[in-house]
Design goal:
- The longest helix has 43 residues.
- By secondary structure, the protein is mainly α.
- The radius of gyration is 23 Å and the shape is globular.
- The chain has 7 helices and no strands.
- It folds into 2 domains: 67 residues; 143 residues.
- The protein starts with a helix and ends in a 33-residue tail after the last helix.
Length: 210
């Protein structure tokens, strides 16, 4: 009788293990699809709950097992940056302040602790853009904000010497700090970092390595 109980328990354990592996396999496939579809939707606009599949397993079990938590954080930081609309004054909408604070927190974490120098560079560049954006509209603190932006752009270049956006943005920041009248590729005032002269800071696709 005892052997029978052992066999039953072993059978149940195998069945549970099989179910668990099936759930993990299904969720892994869904995560892969969610990243691809989320990246596609992101190109059209940052709004919405992107990169989130319908999961069978609870919590972050599968994403942790797959080692994609950093990828999700990186994508989310880009999304928050775009949702903050750095081309607009933050005081115009309280929601923008919330998004900028969240973006700053996420980007700072990446810039300080990511193991990928390209991602650290991209994060530092976007932090510089946020400081530059504030400087455009905050006359009282413009000097401090521009200096901070320049430091971030320099940091981005140190992480990735090929980061053309950071180099372009650094030129703008240094020019503004010297009081030079800035134009964006020959026209317009109060330019945004990463203007027409480059592909645009923050315009890159998350997950692309920037």
């Amino acid at each position: 009788m005892r052997r029978l109980y052992v066999r039953i328990a072993a059978t149940l354990a195998c069945a549970l293990l099989g179910c668990a592996l099936f759930v993990l396999a299904v969720d892994a496939s869904r995560w892969s699809d969610a990243l691809a579809s989320g990246d596609l939707r992101y190109r059209g606009g940052p709004e919405g709950d992107l990169w989130q599949p319908d999961r069978l397993a609870p919590g972050n079990l599968v994403s942790t097992a797959l080692g994609i938590r950093d990828d999700l954080t990186y994508r989310r930081s880009f999304q928050l940056f775009r949702l903050s609309h750095p081309e607009q004054p933050g005081v115009s909408d309280p929601n923008l302040v919330v998004y900028r604070n969240e973006a700053t927190s996420e980007l700072t974490e990446i810039a300080q602790h990511s193991k990928d120098p390209l991602r650290r560079s991209a994060a530092a560049n976007l932090l510089g853009v946020l400081s530059y954006s504030d400087a455009v509209y905050d006359y009282a603190n413009r000097g401090r904000l521009i200096a901070n932006a320049a430091r971030r752009f320099q940091q981005a270049i140190a992480f990735d010497p090929t980061n053309a956006d950071a180099k372009y943005n650094l030129e703008l920041a240094l020019a503004l700090s010297k009081g030079i009248g800035l134009t964006e590729s020959g026209g317009g005032t109060n330019p945004s970092p990463g203007g027409k002269g480059s592909k645009g800071a923050g315009a890159g696709e998350p997950g692309s390595g920037y």
